[in-house]
Write a structure and sequence with these properties.
alpha+beta, binds adenosine-5'-diphosphate, single chain, Heat Shock Protein 90, Beta-Lactamase, Helix Hairpins, 3 domains
């Protein structure tokens, strides 16, 4: 129970911290993309501005002149102007291509002014590549002189981002693993006071139940003695009979509570003995024959030809099977049947208790193993149950590292299946 809660706590911690981490990595990636593009745009702008300075209006010829002849050489100077430019294009104010350097352009300017990321194919290598392109209007005294369009490859930016991506892809799982370990450690610390409080409560229940046993049996014995003494006085018969019944019922409750409080967690290996289930179950059946007969129920025991053995505490396992059989008989009406079946399985010993009784509503199935849970108070009170029988069965099965499942159909019957490991568990 505590380990499961600890696992859940650690899982939720890892999931929530992991989501924050992934979100954080995504944001870092986006910021880096934005920063890199902005830096590239600034550089592109600066270069375009320097080129725009070479544009002038020739009043004599009534023509705009642009000098792009030096563009390929410009990068060799102190300012890396043209080193990494794919193309430079000059369009007239009407959008007609006038001059260009680099890849051959369309004759008409199609792109609106501003920065764009575009995909293009290298004319020589036919390779696809991503470019950052800026189209800027060049203004003169008389208005817009034309448009300068400049593009630079995004390869370096892409490489830088790819490296960041790789770093993040490696860092995120490593951080997740660290978070998981931290989560496991922290949940252990968080569970400690709860575990202590629970253990104290268990100790208290065990001690209180133990202390209650003696006075209860004293009450029962004295009431029975009183019944014998006042055998001829009807005035005392009923009250004394009530005391005996209540003391018996309280005794059962106290014993059940003691059982639940004592057998928490797995059983110590020294308390487990090799047990032949075929014989063990066979010996249990006769105890219920009288009860079954009284209720006109058929009680059947089915076992396989091969011997099935498990490591178990015989007394506890007997208690678990008895609880199931007693429930099956209790909740099966006249003419029904109860089948105790031992089923072979490679890794598990499977014990089934199948009845054709009243069944359990689907909504109640998940809770029937909870302490003090009774499906229908009326029908359980009739049969004198406290709602602890199945909780005890589950605890005993868990103590043996086994599992218990129930399937049921209302009005048709129920099947309780216990699976016990055939090999000793580490
Ligand atoms: P109780 O002592 O009240 O029988 P249990 O823990 O043994 O408590 O069972 C819990 C509830 O599950 C019971 O109140 C009963 O309604 C239901 N139940 C248990 N076994 C069966 C069964 N074989 N058929 C129908 N209902 C069952």
């Amino acid at each position: 129970m505590f380990n499961q809660s600890r696992r859940n706590l650690a899982r939720w911690f890892t999931l929530s911290m992991g989501s924050i981490l992934v979100l954080f990595a995504g944001v870092i990636h986006q910021i880096e993309v934005k920063d890199k593009l902005e830096a590239l745009d600034r550089l592109l702008y600066d270069k375009t501005q320097i080129m725009a300075a070479s544009v002038h209006y020739d009043v004599r010829l009534n023509q705009t002149k642009v000098d792009l002849t030096n563009v390929p050489l410009l990068g060799t100077g102190s300012y890396p102007l043209a080193k990494d430019l794919i193309y430079v294009r000059w369009y007239s104010a009407q959008g007609q291509l006038v001059r260009f350097f680099g890849a051959s352009p369309p004759n008409q300017l199609k792109t609106p002014s501003g920065y764009h990321t575009i995909e293009s194919t290298d004319s020589l290598s036919q390779e696809h590549r991503w470019l950052r392109q800026v189209t800027l209007p060049v203004e003169g005294r008389t208005g817009t002189l034309g448009y300068l369009q400049v593009a630079t490859p995004l390869t370096e930016t892409h490489n830088g981002l790819q490296q960041l991506q790789i770093a993040l892809t490696l860092a995120v799982p490593v951080s997740l693993a660290l978070i998981a370990v931290t989560g496991w450690f922290l949940s252990g610390i968080a569970m400690q006071p709860i575990r202590q409080a629970y253990q104290q409560l268990q100790r208290f229940t065990a001690d209180a139940s133990h202390e209650l046993r003696s006075p209860l049996s004293a009450i029962q014995t004295n009431a029975q003695l009183g019944l014998l003494i006042a055998a001829n006085d009807p005035r005392y018969q009923q009250p004394l009979g009530n005391i005996v019944d209540s003391a018996k019922s309280m005794g059962v409750l106290v014993n059940n509570l003691l059982l639940l409080a004592r057998h928490q967690g797995r059983l110590a290996p020294e308390s487990l003995k090799r047990l032949n289930l075929n014989h063990f179950l066979e010996r249990l059946v006769p105890q219920f024959l009288a009860l079954a007969e009284a209720q006109a129920i058929r009680l059947i025991y089915e076992q396989p030809g091969q011997a099935i053995e498990v490591w178990a505490d015989a007394d506890l396992l007997q208690q678990a099977i008895e609880n199931l059989l007693s429930n099956a008989c209790k909740y099966t009406s006249i003419g029904g049947s109860v089948l105790l079946r031992l089923v072979p399985h490679p890794n598990w010993a499977v014990i089934q208790v199948i009845d054709t009784g009243i069944g359990i509503p689907e909504a109640d199935l998940p809770y029937v193993f909870d302490r003090f849970y009774r499906v229908d108070t009326a029908r359980s009170l009739d049969s004198g149950g406290f709602g602890l029988g199945l909780a005890i069965v589950k605890q005993i099965v868990r103590a043996h590292c086994g599992q218990i499942h129930v399937t049921s159909a209302l009005g048709k019957g129920s099947t309780f299946q216990i699976e016990l490991p055939v090999k000793p568990q580490p």
